[in-house]
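Record format v2
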Amino acid sequence: MSYRHAIGTRAYVFDSLRVLMAKATPIRSGDQLAGLAAESAEEGVAARMALADVPLSTFLNELVVPYEEDEVTRLIMDTHDVAAFKPIASLTVGAFRDWLLSEEATSERLAAIAPGVTPEMAAAVCKLMRNQDLIAVARRCRIVTRFRNTIGLPGTMAVRLQPNHPSDDLRGIAASIADGLAYGCGDAVIGINPVSDNMQVLSDILKMLDELITRLAIPTQGCVLTHVTSSIELINRGVPVDLVFQSVAGTEAANKSFGADLAILREGLDAGRSLKRGTIGDNVMYFETGQGSALSAGAHHDVDQQTLEARAYAVCRAFEPLLVNTVVGFIGPEYLYDGKQIVRAGLEDHFCGKLMGVPLGCDICYTNHAEADQDDMDTLLTLLGAAGVSYIMGIPGADDVMLNYQSTSFHDQLYIRDVLGLKRAPEFEAWLAAQGITGAGGRLVAPAQALRLLGPLAEIAQ
Amino acid sequence: MISDEIWRRLTELTPARIALGRTGSGLPTHQAMKFALAHAQARDAVHTPLAPDEITAGLDTLGLPHLTVSSRAVLRHSYLLRPDLGRRLEAAGREAIAAQRATSGVDIALVIADGLSARAAHAHAIAVTGALLPYIQQNAWSLGPVVVVSQGRVAIGDEIGALLGARLVLVMIGERPGLSSPDSLGIYLTFAPKPGRTDGERNCLSNIHGAGMSANEAAFKAAWLMREAFSRRLTGVTLKDESGVYLSDGRDPEAPGLPPASIDH
């Protein structure tokens, strides 16, 4: 059906919910590239005004990607929790925003409605919200996950230690891990993006991670971020795999371009759980996402990139992940042009994920061909810290020497802990204290204390 | 101090920025300035244009015929904001390539493109091409003219491969510049190239540069993958790089030589 809104004597008409959603999205280069963005600032606001009047129930009847053509749509519709949806079933998108910002929307009530919130509903309300709204509501959403420690408790923020090396050298990876642990990083995961997809190389990295975590008795998990089919194969070969990783997107065709579908993700989940390596929980999946990936694969069905990103969280949600993060600025300026667009997208992604009940972290990042720099990362880090982000990345000096982009550093996570008083996952916090790496209040003590780790680390890396 | 000595040794194991020291939660000033300089240099690398003559001179030395073409992205700004333009050939180049098509096609089309770092193509594409030649000769693979592309993206290889009637296209392309590696080259292999191929249908070797993968190792791996691609008639996520199995049994990746013909999957 069509939607309309008059401003003065001008009537703006939007042919479908899909078009209305796209035009209502704050301007970004990816939607302009796709030819979906509002053509004037006034049209953008007219679309938002029209969207505010759309009942949430409309999203269950008018689908932005056809049910018959797309298994992600089928997943969203077939698993929609009608009972959870009931308290918000009579609201419009605008009234939903009002409710979310009200004192009615407690952490408990937000958790209760999450299974009833479809990604399109989350995306729609997001488009009506300012940055401060996205922070205020996300902050109240609590999503707690467990494998060998507890991620997502109020007042905590975890860090993925990301010790990548340009030729997967084990000693080089271990050197970055030593530095990261000395800065108190690694509670979300020690996660390596391998250069290679060679099974022997992947296996060697996983065995080193396993030995490191076991010998030092670190309450955390390791991950090699390789394709889900490779992780399944490694598990079949008896290699110690903690978390099963996959990049995912919001349409079946985009996932196909990654060589993945829901069936293979299910296989990955089952394979990961079969090892029973989690000590306090069985959240074994790790997903990464990012606005623009569907368009990049020519698989966007003329839907705006923010809505498709929220649909990716519906994919994640079905597999009870330990960790999900948007890699917000990684994709490049053709999708998010500058620091302003990256900051906005990071807050949107975090809000939509949390509202849907997904443990969202963020790789706060940019590439060297985007109009952004470390000042923009400081801004987004501070805002996401306030919004209660589940975890961020910790990369030596913020410079990933393998993936060639900049993210947040070991230092940056110290900064945000200091400014906002954020703790680590409690089990990991206790381990750091027992190692003498941290002292009172979880603050780092003299760097020399961390050297106790170095002996075993150097041995393991041989 | 002993601890300083240990950290110094650790820093030699990786180009990553470890053991930077801290002042409070922040970076010491000299480290903050080093980072700012590296970012400035990477920004400059993105905007350095391809010098096709530097590449074609190297191809002449190797005795390889070549063509120089452009994508439909004319300016760097439009290249950055319109990846679709960087994936398609502009008309003159399209015609020039089509005119070179051999009657029965070729086994491999080699493409060299600037991507996001012309510096990477300048620095490493000729070395990788040279290292590939012994494998190409050994397997009697036929080659089309090497196509050098300005303002190109990975998928432009699909159109080039299809125009040349190639069974497989190998694209060497500058990767997005990092702070520590403004000249990193990637290799993308696509079996049965044609416009519309997805990234899941390609195999990729990345981080080919001074501190990363060597040209010889890249050529060894690419040759292994191409042999597998031809025998299994596909590239992509179902084709895993297991070339290391043969490296670990004592084979020297620095010396040309192929894995055994019968491969157990």
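The mean pLDDT of chain B is 90.
The two ends of chain B are 52 Å apart (CA to CA).
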